[in-house]
Design brief:
- This protein is of the alpha/beta class and 425 residues long.
- It has 2 domains: 262 residues, Aldolase class I (TIM Barrel); 54 residues, no CATH class.
- The chain is built from 20 helices and 15 strands.
- Strand 3, helix 4 and strand 4 form a beta-alpha-beta unit.
- Helix 1 packs across helix 12.
- Bound molecules: iron/sulfur cluster (SF4).
- Iron/sulfur cluster binds next to loops.
Length: 425
């Protein structure tokens, strides 16, 4: 049997300052806990990878170090985590050198030494959080850096030898004009060398954030939806004209430089998340770590090999075996994982129907859409018949189209993707 692919996500929940729009699990006042936190993460990594069968049944293809701001903590900690992973994965068939290994860095928290350490630790992809080239917009959303600091980070990254770099931008920000978006794009596209990947996210005003409060108090105005859509289409057209392939709603890449880590998630491949609030997806079970650093460190006081083993034992059974005994096993699985709930929060235990729906939902995030032949290969069923009712409705509303082997969003569907996804929840 062919090994399955597995991604590893490492969450570093520390930031220098909390941005006004941020509702991620990140903390700006817990630097004194970094050492203890990293030790706890090492225990969690050990819990997974001392299981020999687990290592033998997966090919690890990507590692993604996200946050928070991974570049905020001493790079020695990142090096230690990478060394531990490399040691653990030595017997795995995938070579460290062949993996896509990404770290998120924020300007203002990174210097040449840190970048050199990342490079030595075999990290081969950077994701830089710029958001805008306009310094007053950056200030207004609570970012700590300036455009000039970004330019310095970018220059150093190239000097140190990183040739696969993503730049994050945002649209739909309060007081942002379409001219600001044009300027940001223009600056980024004209960098020498140009970034290989650009992500463009629309601001989502989340409850409880400083920005939500400011909007409520009329200190800031939420962006007009039509203007935000204009920005989106401007970004799409400009990046496509400049040689970036639009491959997912918010993501653009030069040829062959799509983010493998994210692509694997959209293809419903499995991953494990290490650290506070990190999510994992193994064998149709989605589970997450607790959301406070204190509780996480406490949970990881001992290596939880036995608990992890229970998840993994389930994971090593093949899909076909599972299909045969589907419903009976689902009950059994729920019972087994109850014991794991003391450490992990079980968010979803999928049966085969759930998996098929989710495969559609995730696949329709990609611009190429869901490949019908791949769906058949994975689930035997033909999605066209299986989801006839939903697809007919969406085609009639001109939100999706069926072109050859693909079911994909139309341009109208790109603007109203939430309506499309709702059909598969
Ligand atoms: S740097 Fe990122 S994770 Fe940290 S507070 Fe800002 S948006 Fe949130």
């Amino acid at each position: 049997m062919e090994n399955k692919e597995l991604g590893i996500y490492i969450h570093i929940p520390f930031c220098q300052h909390k941005c006004d729009y941020c509702d991620f699990i990140s903390f700006s006042n817990k630097q004194n806990m970094v050492k203890g936190y990293v030790e706890a993460m090492k225990k969690e990594i050990n819990s997974y990878f001392q299981n020999k069968d687990f290592l033998d049944s997966y090919n690890i293809t990507t590692i993604y170090i996200g946050g928070g701001t991974p570049s905020f903590i001493d790079s020695q900690y990142i090096v230690e985590i990478m060394e531990l992973l490399e040691m653990k994965l030595i017997r795995n068939q995938t070579k460290f050198e062949d993996m896509e290994i990404t770290i998120e860095v924020n300007p203002g928290t990174v210097n040449q030494k840190k970048l050199e350490d990342y490079k030595k630790a075999k990290i081969n992809r950077l994701s830089i959080g710029l958001q805008s080239t306009n310094n007053s917009i950056l200030k207004e959303i609570g970012r700590i850096h300036s455009f000039e600091q970004f330019l310095e980070t970018y220059r150093l990254a190239n000097q140190v030898g990183f040739d696969n770099i993503n730049v994050d931008l945002m649209i739909g920000l309060p007081n942002q004009r379409i001219e600001d978006v044009k300027e940001s794009l223009n600056e980024i596209i004209n960098l020498k060398p140009a970034p290989t990947h650009i992500s463009v996210y629309s601001l989502i005003v989340e409850e409880g954030t400083v920005i939500a409060q400011k909007i409520e108090n009329h200190q800031l105005e939420e962006m007009d939806e039509d203007l935000e859509r204009n920005m989106y289409w401007y970004v799409k057209d400009t990046l496509e004209l400049n040689g970036y392939k639009h491959y997912e709603i918010s993501n653009f890449a030069k040829e062959g430089k799509e983010s493998k880590h994210n692509m694997n998630c959209w293809l419903q491949k499995e991953y494990i998340g290490i650290g506070v609030a990190a999510h994992s997806y193994i064998n149709g079970i989605r589970y997450a770590n607790c959301e406070t650093i204190e509780e996480y460190i406490d949970n990881m006081k001992v290596e939880n090999s036995e608990l992890i083993e229970r998840i993994l034992t389930n994971a090593q059974r093949t899909d076909t075996e599972k299909n045969i005994e589907n419903s009976r096993r689902d009950e059994e699985k729920v019972h087994k994982i109850k014991q794991i709930e003391k450490i992990y929060e079980i968010e979803e235990v999928q049966n085969l129907e759930d998996k098929k729906k989710e495969y559609m939902l995730l696949g329709l995030r990609k611009i190429e859409g869901v490949q019908i032949s791949k769906f058949k290969e994975k689930f035997i069923d033909n999605p066209i018949f299986l989801f006839r009712k939903e697809l007919e409705k969406l085609v009639n509303e001109e939100l999706i189209s069926i072109e050859g082997d693909y079911i994909k969003l139309t341009n109208k569907g790109l603007d109203l993707a939430n309506i499309v996804w709702e059909e598969f929840i």
